[in-house]
Write a structure and sequence with these properties.
Blueprint (H helix, E strand, L loop, with lengths): L39 E3 L3 E3 L9 H4 L9 E5 L5 H8 L4 E7 L14 H4 L1 H25 L5 E5 L11 E7 L8 H9 L2 E9 L9 E3 L13 E3 L1 H10 L2 E12 L11 E11 L2
Parallel strand pairs: 3-4, 3-6, 4-5, 6-7
Antiparallel strand pairs: 1-2, 7-11, 8-9, 10-11
Length: 276
């Protein structure tokens, strides 16, 4: 069993699923009750279409970090591809984390939007939508025979009792948060060794954040920021982490229309290690 990187014994196993802070597994049988964020190959169902197709690319996505024997936190797990791939890569234990309620969801406050004018109604609607995302995770979890545990809550303040992790995977969520700095602090605090960030980016020598909100694009109310790689580096260094990997590549994103090819979206995998 892997030892924690500071030389201490690896943490003992947490309580089983269904014991706080872990969620009770859901029995989901019908894919019609699911929304798949990730494309997945599922026993009995075959290939399932998803918004992003990362199949066969997990090592690229995590910057080829070695997760064998690690206790891993997958943040923003959605349909669970990264969680299940981490298990297949030899992780000792995986905890999948996602928001518990749409009250946690950040959006740009466009005037006249339901998010602004009827927030309670918007939360109710989005909770129904998020339930379909969670259903896709639990259906895949059962069909793949996953042992991953699940916790729901607030990314800015992780649930008490999750314990320490050898690696925290932060995949495609920071650009969708009002305050990515506070989220990174919360997540980095949970890691004894690695923080793995996969995100969009722009190339500039400065530590710069580009605001992506535009009055002309209300349909993009869910995207706030694009950070330079230098800003990620500076932020993580402030918190005591040194970059060990930077790998730029592309991944297959959402189809513009059914049947059309997926666009290849530029991303960067950044792996940071806690300094002693």
């Amino acid at each position: 069993e892997r030892e924690a990187s500071n030389g201490a014994a690896a943490p003992s196993d947490p309580p089983p699923s269904g014991t706080p802070p872990y969620a009770r597994p859901r029995r989901v049988d019908d894919p019609a009750h699911c929304f798949f964020y990730h494309a997945l190959d599922l026993p009995g169902l075959g290939a399932v279409e998803g918004a992003w197709d990362l199949r066969g690319r997990f090592p690229d996505y995590v910057g080829h970090a070695d997760l064998a024997g690690a206790r891993v936190l997958d943040v923003g797990a959605a349909s669970g591809f990264l969680s299940f791939a981490a298990e297949a890569a030899g992780a000792r234990e995986v905890v999948s984390f996602d928001l518990d309620t749409a009250e946690r969801q950040d959006l740009l406050p466009f005037a006249g939007s339901r998010f602004v004018t009827d927030h309670a109604g918007w939360v109710e609607m989005m909770d129904d939508n998020f339930a379909r995302w969670k259903n896709s995770y639990w259906l895949a979890h059962r069909l793949l025979g996953s042992r991953a545990r699940v916790a729901y809550g607030d990314v800015y303040r992780l649930p008490a009792g999750l314990g320490r992790f050898d690696a925290v995977i932060v995949g495609a969520i920071l650009e969708h948060l009002v305050d990515p700095l506070s989220a990174l602090r919360s997540l980095a605090d949970a890691s004894d060794d690695l923080v793995i960030i996969n995100t969009d980016y722009f190339d500039t020598p400065g530590a710069v954040a580009l605001f992506l909100g535009s009055p002309a694009r209300p349909e993009h109310s869910y995207t706030f920021w694009q950070w330079s790689i230098a800003l990620y580096d500076a932020t993580m260094a402030i918190m005591g982490f040194r970059k060990v990997t930077e790998e730029k590549t592309t991944f297959a994103g959402t189809r513009p229309a059914p049947g059309e090819p997926r666009p290849m979206m530029p991303r960067v995998a950044l792996v940071y290690r806690r300094q002693r």
